[in-house]
Amino acid sequence: MSSLASANQSSGESEDYSYGNWYIDEPNAREEASQPYETIPACQHSFPPSLYHTCLAPLSLVAILLLSLLVKRRRLCLGCCHGTFGLPSPLDFLAEESGRLVPVAVFGILFTKLCVLALEEDPLPFLPISSPAGQGYWKTLALLYYPALYYPLIACATVRHQAGYVLGCLLSWAHCAVQIWHKVECPQTPKIYKYYSLLASLPLISGLVLLSLWYPTQLLKSLSQKMAVTGLEVTGKSYYEDYLRHILSGKRSKSSSSVANPSFPSRILFYFLSHIYSPQRGFRLPLKLILSSTLAAITIYQEVLLLLVAFVPNLQKAREGITEEVTYMLAGFGLVLSEDKLEVIAWVKYYLWALEVCYVSALVLSCSLTFLMLTRSLVTHRNNLRAWHCGATLDGGPQPQKPGVGATAIFCWMSFSGYQTAFICLGLFLQQIIFFLGFVLFTFLVVIPILYGRNLLLFYMLENTWPFCLTLILAVILQNLTAHWAFLENHQGQQELTNRKSLYAVTFLLFPINVLVGIMVGFCRMLISALFNIIHFCQLDLSLLPRGVETLDPGYRTYCYYLKMEVSQSHPAMRAFCFLLLQLPGSQRLAGAQAGLRPSDVEEGIRLLQTKNSARNATRSRQSRIRWGLAYTLIRNPSLLTFRKKSLSGPLANGSQPSSPNP
Amino acid sequence: MSSLASANQSSGESEDYSYGNWYIDEPNAREEASQPYETIPACQHSFPPSLYHTCLAPLSLVAILLLSLLVKRRRLCLGCCHGTFGLPSPLDFLAEESGRLVPVAVFGILFTKLCVLALEEDPLPFLPISSPAGQGYWKTLALLYYPALYYPLIACATVRHQAGYVLGCLLSWAHCAVQIWHKVECPQTPKIYKYYSLLASLPLISGLVLLSLWYPTQLLKSLSQKMAVTGLEVTGKSYYEDYLRHILSGKRSKSSSSVANPSFPSRILFYFLSHIYSPQRGFRLPLKLILSSTLAAITIYQEVLLLLVAFVPNLQKAREGITEEVTYMLAGFGLVLSEDKLEVIAWVKYYLWALEVCYVSALVLSCSLTFLMLTRSLVTHRNNLRAWHCGATLDGGPQPQKPGVGATAIFCWMSFSGYQTAFICLGLFLQQIIFFLGFVLFTFLVVIPILYGRNLLLFYMLENTWPFCLTLILAVILQNLTAHWAFLENHQGQQELTNRKSLYAVTFLLFPINVLVGIMVGFCRMLISALFNIIHFCQLDLSLLPRGVETLDPGYRTYCYYLKMEVSQSHPAMRAFCFLLLQLPGSQRLAGAQAGLRPSDVEEGIRLLQTKNSARNATRSRQSRIRWGLAYTLIRNPSLLTFRKKSLSGPLANGSQPSSPNP
């Protein structure tokens, strides 16, 4: 056994154990020496968090009010404020052409704050906590406070105005400076693990850094160019035009993979990337899905970090702190690992080390599986979106026969990102528990017995039941063999049943054994079903229930309705047509106005298409057809524009009939 | 609290508790008085089981040999022994026309014996047990011994000969007499519960009684009628003719439900029966499904019996045996239910009674659910079979494009009944555990706190987290309300999205709360999925895995292949045609022979259709078409038979070409 102990030393914890050998008689002295239990000095911020919030909350409020005034002013100038109130929109979830960087960054900041908040004792530093119950109330309040605090960070970008960019710069710099200053001043915190707070805040800080770089860039751009907004619009326009051309041309454009003889690594890379990013021209995943995926990645990061720092350092400390007392404690429970106390300590340390390895392996496995499932989800999302765009429906999902959206769809759409994040969190946790248990059982019942000949529980069980197991295995093999060689006859190229009487006799005689085989198969069924559900728990695009009752699964139901809403409100072809219809006359009509057409005006485009004469449906549909045809022709033949200018801008602006149906 | 105690008395255990009040100071005396722990006297069988087996095993062997000789002799007489060996077939699983009573009875006997065997110490009474390990070997051996022992009981019926019936009478009487004699002599056994052995053997004894009545009846029939076998054949023939006529007529026959104005109860009964028994004329569930259902019912009986007698009497004993010592024991664990010792005893008794109620309720619920699932399975089986008969395929199952059977299908077909039985057993057990836990949690966390104001754990938790819960609920309600009233606009009868900016703002602001709502929804998802899978675990016709990966579920895979085998081998239309083809000339050709055509000769009918000239496929298919047409015409016009006798019996007997293709 001493050879084993030395093997242990060389493999896992060489220095710890060698120390343990020498200082085993002075456990207290050694413990104090090797484990100073480094006390983290109480760290006082020179700029306390309460002051930070007291300054930044009013600043944010002022920013919102200013932005609101700005929006109102522009609205009033344009003379159209139907349905929009003063508050600037945080972001346009349903538009493809709005930037994706700022929403992703702000959602990341918000979610990271939420994660950090869950473990913080002082959720709202500017409010005094009266009791532990009060802490709960403040946490609930903080769930509403932090979105409001970060609201201006995202709203400044959507206003697309120099004043907005200036405000954005100020706010993001202030947030970023304070956060970085706090972390530099106090990098270590006593909670859970000394660097946990720092590591957990990394996404928050990187998001803030990103914003405090993005806003100045945009400000500089808008200062240097007179019409900075046009650049963005041109992108949106070209995107939609591209998409429309691609859809209407009817033939697939050659993908970039048609390069002659790509190398093997680049092929693999391309194959992997083709799952994440669609090679179809003009097709983009909706912003909400991009957001959900980013949030899912942050969730995985935060959860893995927490699981890691909450378990591994403590286990390592426990391993280092093992002394002779453990042998007495184990003996008290009737567990005698060995006669030699040193050996017992070595074994306990070895077991703890094995436990740690199992834990980390389970974490790695569950993390990779969750990432894999996330990637697969993206593929499924893309396929489903494309199918819905073509009018297909999801298996078991809501039927798209009703063209409008319902309240359920809106509710599901609002909750989708939150649910996706929560499911990733729960799924990863479930996987970690199950895989950890599985690895521990495997290690302690199979690996250690085989390596060291200890804990032979499973092997004793096998030894006692081998005739039974052998009978079951033999029966299965026998049935398979007889099915192959005795009961099948090759009759003119077609396999036919033969020897029926023997088949019946074997079926009858082996029935009791088949019942027992069935018990084993039943356990397999349970295991497969449970593992499948746990691994796929984080996927919203997959129902955990079988065919026919899929929508009983609340996650899948949310996904189906989310998709319905997304497709009905942002079908790319529809949006492209609306955008172009507005763009063509608009760019000329509003050439003298201060601002060009914003992508959010597409909503107005949809409204324009709804003519007022509901009674004359036939005329309306004819009108619509003519209009689409007109728009399409004009896209393909831009030279005609000059001749059609008046007749086109007329009917689209006020909804009357076009002067001539034939372009 | 004393009012509660008196309430307890009146509700649950009035006499026990009132005794307890009086005799609380003499616990030992009272215990001995009220609980004599009735020792069951050791019971010696006057006809020991070892002798029973020593007599009956050779008798069964002799019976098998005699039957084998009988079969051989008849086979030799007929001059066709292709592929059949001497051993008589136990039953014709794939034929619809064979009787169903005997197979059901014998399988029931065999399975009951298997259940009783699992708990028996002496699985093979005629062999001495050397050690507990030896007991395991004997049990494994018994799995093969008992099917062989009961083999003649079923084989005697399939021979359809007077000698077979005589042997069947002898064997069934012997088995039945010995079993009944044993139970009458020793109705009580010390194991588990005094009457457990008697109750568990009931299906075995009733099966034996059934057989010992059936064989004499058949013997009398065959003695009184010269051609007793013909009766059976006529049944089979008329069944197939009916089915064929029904299929070929193309119009649905009126079902029996068309009686004018049936009463409400009879309607309900009919509705229920229509699920179990198909009203379609001529359609019958295959024998294997009938067998599996019977075995499933026996499994439920045996398992419920075992679960009931293993828990309830022991709990009742424990409840009666509660004395003052329990208070000390509880105090030792730091549990002080009350200051008054009498009250503590009352509470413990009440809790035990609640536990018992939960257990029995869970058992009733799981038993009813399993029965319901079994009924639903029968409906699905029928629908699936009909769909396969028409050439449809199961969702995700194997494609029926390959017309022949494969080894997998044969293996799955052989194991099907065993698996179904095992899954019912496992499923019921799982349900019992889960429902019991659920009921206990519900009773002790919700019902008792509400009724008596104790164990307020859940309510304390709710009290501490109410602002959190309220926020979540309010957020969900708010989102639903705004989705309905603020973000939806009724635009010419069609609902359209409006107020987009507010929608985006609400989505952003409520995101953190939606993550927490998502955690709750995730728990619901887990619960729904787990409950669904546990409740449907016993159903083989339902995959527990979602769409696309259904056949990864071993149970569903077995079911699909079983169905494929069943349909390919016993398609009713095919069998009906074969039967008729053989029947028409056979009844005249073999009129002088001792025995008529047996339904098992249908196999030969299938063979006859395969002509030897594989090269001339075109001729063959023309031949087949002509033959089917001929047979059909003759069925519809029996008067033509006399004119066609010679030309028909010729080609069918030796497979040569028919002399005239036109009937």
UniProtKB/TrEMBL annotation, chains A, B:
GO molecular function: retinal binding; retinol binding; retinol transmembrane transporter activity; signaling receptor activity
Compartment(s) of residence: Cell membrane
Chain segments annotated as transmembrane: 51-71, 193-215, 289-312, 350-374, 423-452, 464-482, 503-528
GO cellular component, one term: plasma membrane
Bilayer disposition of the protein: Multi-pass membrane protein
Predominant location category: membrane
Domain of life: Eukaryota
Keywords of this entry: Cell membrane, Membrane, Receptor, Retinol-binding, Transmembrane, Transmembrane helix, Transport, Vitamin A
Subunit structure: Homodimer. Interacts with JAK2 and STAT5. Interacts (via extracellular domains) with RBP4. Interacts (via cytoplasmic domains) with RBP1.
Designated name of the protein: Receptor for retinol uptake STRA6
Organism encoding this protein: Monodelphis domestica (Gray short-tailed opossum)
